[in-house]
Design brief:
The structure is a homodimer of 440-residue chains.
Chain A lengths: L3 E8 L3 H12 L1 H8 L1 E9 L16 E2 L2 H5 L6 E4 L5 H12 L3 E4 L2 H17 L4 E2 L10 H8 L5 E7 L2 H12 L4 H10 L8 H4 L2 H15 L9 E2 L7 H9 L2 E11 L5 E11 L11 E8 L3 E8 L3 H17 L1 H7 L6 H4 L10 E11 L4 H11 L4 E6 L8 E8 L2 E2 H11 L5 E10 L8
Parallel strand pairs in A: 1-2, 1-4, 2-3, 4-5, 5-6, 8-10, 10-17
Antiparallel strand pairs in A: 7-9, 7-11, 9-10, 11-12, 13-15, 13-16, 13-17, 14-15
Amino acid sequence: MAEKQIKVGLVGFGTVGSGVAKLITEEADSIAAKTGLRLELARVVDIDTQSARPVKLPDGILTDDLNKLLDDDTIQIGVELVGGTDAAKEIQLKMLQTGKDVVTANKALLAEYGNELYQAAQQNGRCIAFEASCAGGLPIISGIRTGLSANEIRAMYGIVNGTCNYILSNMTSKDEEFADALAAAQQKGYAEADPALDINGDDSAHKLAILASIAFGYEITLDDIFVEGIKAISKDDIHYGGEMGYVLKLLAIGQKDKNNRVSLRVHPSFIARDNSLARVDGSFNAITIFGSAVGQVMYYGRGAGMMPTASAVVADIIDVALGNSATTFRHLHLKPRNETAPLIDKIGNLISRFYIRVMCKDQPGVLAQIAKILGDHQISISGTLQHEGAGPENTVPVVIATHLTQQKNISAAIKQIKTLDVIGGEPVCIRIVDIPEDKD
Amino acid sequence: MAEKQIKVGLVGFGTVGSGVAKLITEEADSIAAKTGLRLELARVVDIDTQSARPVKLPDGILTDDLNKLLDDDTIQIGVELVGGTDAAKEIQLKMLQTGKDVVTANKALLAEYGNELYQAAQQNGRCIAFEASCAGGLPIISGIRTGLSANEIRAMYGIVNGTCNYILSNMTSKDEEFADALAAAQQKGYAEADPALDINGDDSAHKLAILASIAFGYEITLDDIFVEGIKAISKDDIHYGGEMGYVLKLLAIGQKDKNNRVSLRVHPSFIARDNSLARVDGSFNAITIFGSAVGQVMYYGRGAGMMPTASAVVADIIDVALGNSATTFRHLHLKPRNETAPLIDKIGNLISRFYIRVMCKDQPGVLAQIAKILGDHQISISGTLQHEGAGPENTVPVVIATHLTQQKNISAAIKQIKTLDVIGGEPVCIRIVDIPEDKD
């Protein structure tokens, strides 16, 4: 069969961009053998045209002039790997307007402006493919849209930020404090110099917005997602939670109830030690999905890095070139915002179990006072832990795990506990997430 | 957007067939909303038209006459869920000849006659979609063909037979002997009344043949695969292996070396306790794949059962109806048999570590004799285990783990060990498989 020539233009020649250039140039033969497509990197655009990169480009294709890509009608596919939202949005819109399909790994952009971009693509008769935007090398988006297309997705639980998972794993296994684990992650290249987007949970929220919109079929906005990062996590709580049988992970959680109400949240979560997500260590990602027919499915692999993310970008380029992405994209029908908005659950309504730690003065009656406040708020205790030995200012940690209760009850109870004069410092409150596991 | 009507004909109204009928009839609205496709079950064919099934079909569509399906030109997609090879092959060929695309879960048929059927499909301008043939609900085939299309697949390690995994899990966790664990699996419905295909390893080999052909791009035949089942496994060996840090799994393994030589095998395998596949329990399936760009990816979920398998069948129906399967199928280029055959490695060349147990008379010098034979065959010992206490006829188990060596060296050494007069019974030999794990 004759090979079909596909010209690709790439904007953003950083880490992932270099990986994409490497795959397209070095694997062209094997991709052609497998797919019948001869990929050609026709243009690479970056403001930095001087720095050395770990790939040799064909002569003359690197430029700092975006128009050289846009004006080239032989380029069918534009890959946007600039990141960020402002310039990247302009670039994607211009690519669509000049008749190019778009492939991107830009989760922040899609989370914030996805609906606008999808519409622009549909108006221009083009498609946007974004497998690489969530969980790097894991084919989770095609998994949801193709593999699980006969299912109603009921819930998803994901470890989708490798930086946070690396930090929490080290805090757990090496008994490190947050600041030390973050520094180690930065030194290893797993965390950016400015790690805010990761450790605040925003990066996980971006990915959840994208995944939840395609899984539930809703127009999701970032405001729909409750977000709490990992900055305030202490190794002591990881340790105490561990004694109670839990492992701490930053989870992105999306759930749809029987009335089609959706709850979306990113927060530190204690999960049972024997849950499969508890064993996902270091910079790895994993996502567990519950489908109405398939039951539990888990994807596990590298969620970031040059080649894993490039693998997803090039898979999208191939899928676009084969015409499959266009078909799938044409059928991306999200329930519009006015219908979706009333179906988004507020975090106050969340029913969860909770881990609470309060530093208490070591004197009689303290536990009774706390227990009374919890009882007054209809919060039932499932376990407690109190070690001997002193904390700061002669306090001891009192750790309590609760049964299911509403978030707003906990918030009200904690507010009242803070007024007790036997308390030292801020109470810690971490959600315990009971992820169901299919069993025989 | 107007809905596109897709008429589906189903042959084989057993467990999975009932699940497919259920999904198509009960989820038609949600599938239409997501994909723009209105699936209609137009015809169901089964020799048994009387037994009750857990789904209500539209009136008049159930028949025992295959021609009613074949002759109906409005039926675009034929689903073959008869199983077995003879009748099923005829049915698929007739479907293709009458202009229908084929969706199937029939791994035995594809493993044995896949190349012939693929050719027939291509000659008729039709496609065959077979996601459901391997690992039920796990979208592993689309994962390899689409998600990992930019990768050279280097290796795959799969737990792809839920029956065997259920049996081995119970032998491990409940200290049951094989016969008892098999009986329990049969009682729970996880094993057939005739479990031969599962416990002999043949079912796993069927799936490996399909997965390896698409992953490596070779025309694979069943004869290329070395197969050893789990019938001879004793709980004692699971126990001793466990003491050495290993868990026993029936693995389907495909590896491609730097010279493009492929080795394919299904056999009981001791794997490290902390490997992610070691934690896959009960009837679940999991497949770890190593891609050149993506690194390690694992899929985990239900590999069988009515609704998980039906989920994969209906996903294929949707993919065929959207036209995506045709595109992917057109590009299924397998290296033809005459080029593939010389690239298949024989099991004798396998380099592996081995677990060996020999029942020895409890007398001086026995271990020395065995160790000498191993040394004479250039086999280096990595660990030994010998417990006090008597086996049958005053023997004790001597357990040895080896370093890497060739299969043929082990076979020769075992042959010689069997001639020792201090030996009771047949020596046990189980491969130790060191699955690499990507780490930070």
